[in-house]
């Protein structure tokens, strides 16, 4: 009994420690002062209005959103077939290929960004949306790959074989049997992939320009010269967008599906 209480207290303490910075950011973003202050000295939404009236912030938010969505979509289209191949077939070098595909999880993104900048120079892809898309797809694909692989169990394979024995075509088997089984893995991996793409700084900073900027790089550059509550407002807007996305996901799909196989 005492152990259970201690575990709960530690869990709540860790959760509070993780949420406290978010509370501070949201509080600072509504302060009436022209400097960062917490607790906020007065309440105002002027800093949010200032951020939204700045075209560079709006453009950066749009770039980050489009980039994260497209990169996540491409990662899903590439990772699902790769996961199916890894789960279904045994071939020489399988472990090496899987390690290479998941290596971006542990490989420093700043090194990947520098390499992409150098390599892209030979093809004229430096500092472009395509260069960002390629880089982000590389670093987020392992999230989808690992999540889908965890769904491809022997039981799932048995259902697939049963569908084929009953006359199901490969495409019908995939969409009616395989896809519903791996859907939680796709959704989970896509969420992690989208967030990882959205917050990335190390790789993005090598391939952005003043006219093509993501919001994390925009904030990184802005804070080097100016520190005011606009930074907190931009961060607060990001937090609000993520929370709303989770709420919409729960209403449309149900977060309980992420831990269930149906």
UniProtKB/TrEMBL annotation:
Localization of this protein: Cell inner membrane; Cell membrane
Q: Name one GO biological process term.
A: transmembrane transport
Which InterPro entries does the annotation name? MetI-like, MetI-like_sf
**Where do transmembrane segments lie in this chain?**
12-38, 58-85, 97-117, 129-149, 231-258
Among Gene3D superfamilies, the record links this protein to: MetI-like
Domain spans labelled ABC transmembrane type-1: 61-250
Keywords of the record, alphabetical order, are:
Cell inner membrane, Cell membrane, Membrane, Transmembrane, Transmembrane helix, Transport
Topology relative to the membrane? Multi-pass membrane protein
Gene Ontology CC: one annotated term: plasma membrane
Membership in a protein family: Belongs to the binding-protein-dependent transport system permease family.
What protein name applies here? Answer: Polyamine ABC transporter permease
């Amino acid at each position: 009994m005492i152990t259970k209480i201690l575990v709960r207290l530690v869990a709540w303490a860790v959760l509070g420690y993780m949420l406290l910075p978010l509370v501070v950011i949201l509080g600072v973003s509504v302060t009436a002062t022209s400097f960062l202050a917490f607790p906020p000295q007065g309440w105002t939404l002027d800093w949010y209005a200032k951020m939204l009236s700045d075209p560079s912030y709006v453009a950066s938010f749009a770039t980050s959103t489009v980039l994260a969505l497209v990169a996540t979509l491409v990662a899903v289209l590439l990772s699902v077939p790769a996961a199916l191949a890894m789960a279904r077939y045994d071939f020489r070098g399988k472990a090496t290929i899987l390690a290479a595909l998941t290596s971006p999880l542990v490989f420093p993104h700043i090194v990947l960004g520098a390499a992409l900048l150098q390599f892209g120079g030979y093809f004229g892809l430096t500092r472009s949306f395509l260069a960002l898309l390629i880089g982000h797809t590389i670093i987020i694909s392992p999230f989808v790959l690992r999540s889908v692989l965890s769904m491809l169990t022997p039981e799932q394979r048995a259902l697939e074989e049963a569908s084929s024995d009953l006359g199901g075509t490969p495409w019908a088997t995939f969409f009616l049997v395989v896809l519903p089984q791996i859907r939680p893995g796709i959704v989970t991996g896509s969420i992690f992939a989208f967030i990882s793409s959205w917050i990335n700084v190390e790789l993005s900073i090598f391939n952005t320009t003043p006219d093509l900027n993501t919001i994390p790089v925009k904030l990184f550059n802005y804070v080097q010269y100016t520190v005011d509550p606009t930074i907190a407002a931009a961060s607060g807007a990001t937090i609000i967008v993520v929370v709303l996305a989770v709420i919409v996901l729960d209403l449309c799909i149900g977060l309980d599906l992420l831990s269930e196989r149906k």
